[in-house]
Amino acid sequence: MPKTETFQDLSLVSSGSHGELWRWLYTELRAAILDGRLRPGSRLPSTRSLAVQYQLSRGTVVAAFDQLQAEGYTHTEIGSGTFVASGLPDPPLSSPRTKPALTLPPSTATLSKRAIETLKGITVMPAPHSVGKAFRAYEPAIDLFPVELWARVAARVLRHAPRSLYGHGNAAGYPPLRRAIAEYIGTSRGVRCLPEQIIVTSGAQQALDLIGRFLLDPGDPVWIEDPGYPGAWQTLRATGARMIPVPVDQDGLNVVAGMKLSPRAKLAYVTPANQFPLSVTMSADRRMELLNWAVGAGAWIVEDEYDAEYRYHGRPVAALQSLDRSGSVIYVGTFTKMLFNALRLGFMVLPQRLVGAFEAARSFVDRHPPTLDQAILAEFITEGHFGHHVRRMRQTYSERMEILKESADKDLDGLLDVTAAAAGMRTVAWLKAGTSDKVAAERASQLGLEVMALSAFTFQQKQRPALILGFAGCNPDELRRGVSVLATALRGSPALR
Question: Average model confidence (pLDDT) for the chain?
Answer without folding.
Answer: 88
